[in-house]
Automatic annotation (TrEMBL):
<comment type="function">
    <text>Catalyzes the conversion of N5-carboxyaminoimidazole ribonucleotide (N5-CAIR) to 4-carboxy-5-aminoimidazole ribonucleotide (CAIR).</text>
</comment>
<feature type="binding site">
    <location>
        <position position="43"/>
    </location>
    <ligand>
        <name>substrate</name>
    </ligand>
</feature>
<keyword id="KW-0658">Purine biosynthesis</keyword>
<feature type="binding site">
    <location>
        <position position="16"/>
    </location>
    <ligand>
        <name>substrate</name>
    </ligand>
</feature>
<dbReference type="Pfam" id="PF00731">
    <property type="entry name" value="AIRC"/>
</dbReference>
<comment type="pathway">
    <text>Purine metabolism; IMP biosynthesis via de novo pathway; 5-amino-1-(5-phospho-D-ribosyl)imidazole-4-carboxylate from 5-amino-1-(5-phospho-D-ribosyl)imidazole (N5-CAIR route): step 2/2.</text>
</comment>
<dbReference type="GO" id="GO:0034023">
    <property type="term" value="F:5-(carboxyamino)imidazole ribonucleotide mutase activity"/>
</dbReference>
<dbReference type="InterPro" id="IPR033747">
    <property type="entry name" value="PurE_ClassI"/>
</dbReference>
<feature type="binding site">
    <location>
        <position position="13"/>
    </location>
    <ligand>
        <name>substrate</name>
    </ligand>
</feature>
<comment type="similarity">
    <text>Belongs to the AIR carboxylase family. Class I subfamily.</text>
</comment>
<dbReference type="InterPro" id="IPR024694">
    <property type="entry name" value="PurE_prokaryotes"/>
</dbReference>
<feature type="domain" description="PurE">
    <location>
        <begin position="5"/>
        <end position="156"/>
    </location>
</feature>
<dbReference type="GO" id="GO:0006189">
    <property type="term" value="P:'de novo' IMP biosynthetic process"/>
</dbReference>
<dbReference type="InterPro" id="IPR000031">
    <property type="entry name" value="PurE_dom"/>
</dbReference>
<protein>
    <recommendedName>
        <fullName>N5-carboxyaminoimidazole ribonucleotide mutase</fullName>
        <ecNumber>5.4.99.18</ecNumber>
    </recommendedName>
</protein>
<keyword id="KW-0413">Isomerase</keyword>
Length: 164
């Protein structure tokens, strides 16, 4: 039997994939498998309920949820699963993602959504946080995450240069 991917990346729309692909690419760099799915809280509510209620039994350990505008997807998912949910505010056209950010971050006490930065940085960091959670119980992932971070440090020059 193939083991289920530990990370689910869900997003409200195909249009979110450009942003959420950064989370997927980061997980791939860390050799962590994932399932990416389009689940809209308002357009496909039944799909959301089915996914969120079965996510733990399906073997997922962490959920990354990206949405834009009235970004209720991460909060609704978190309401229906005990798994950690990391929310990525997708940059919206109307309000540049401030609407997404506020609607994800301002969860009333009791149902947490770990909220990241708007857009690409948030998607990458959601994947790194997911990896850090998995690394608590998986030494191989911990080692790959350590190496990834060391590589990032090594890529930063100590002195600035002209005309790069
Ligand atoms: C949200 O509405 C999605 O998360 C997306 O960011 C936003 C716009 O969706 P589309 O109109 O591009 O499908 O549900």
């Amino acid at each position: 039997m193939t083991e289920r991917p530990p990370v689910a990346i869900i997003m409200g729309s195909q249009s979110d994939w450009e942003t959420m692909k950064n989370a997927a690419d980061t997980l791939e760099a860390l050799e962590i498998s994932y399932d990416a799915r389009i689940i809209s809280a308002h357009r496909t509510p039944d799909r959301l309920v089915a996914f969120a209620k079965s996510a733990r039994d399906e073997g997922f350990k962490v959920i990354i949820a990206g949405a834009g505008g009235a970004a209720h997807l991460p909060g609704m998912a978190a309401a229906m699963t005990p798994l950690p949910v990391f929310g990525v505010p997708v940059q919206s056209k109307a309000l540049s993602g401030q609407d997404s950010l506020l609607s994800i971050v301002q969860m009333p006490a009791g149902i947490p959504v770990g909220t990241l930065a708007i857009g690409k940085a948030g998607a990458i960091n959601a994947a790194l946080l997911a990896a850090a959670v998995l690394a608590l119980y998986d030494e191989d992932i911990a080692e790959r995450l350590d190496n990834w971070r060391a590589g990032q440090s090594a890529a930063v020059a100590e002195y600035p240069m002209d005309n790069l």
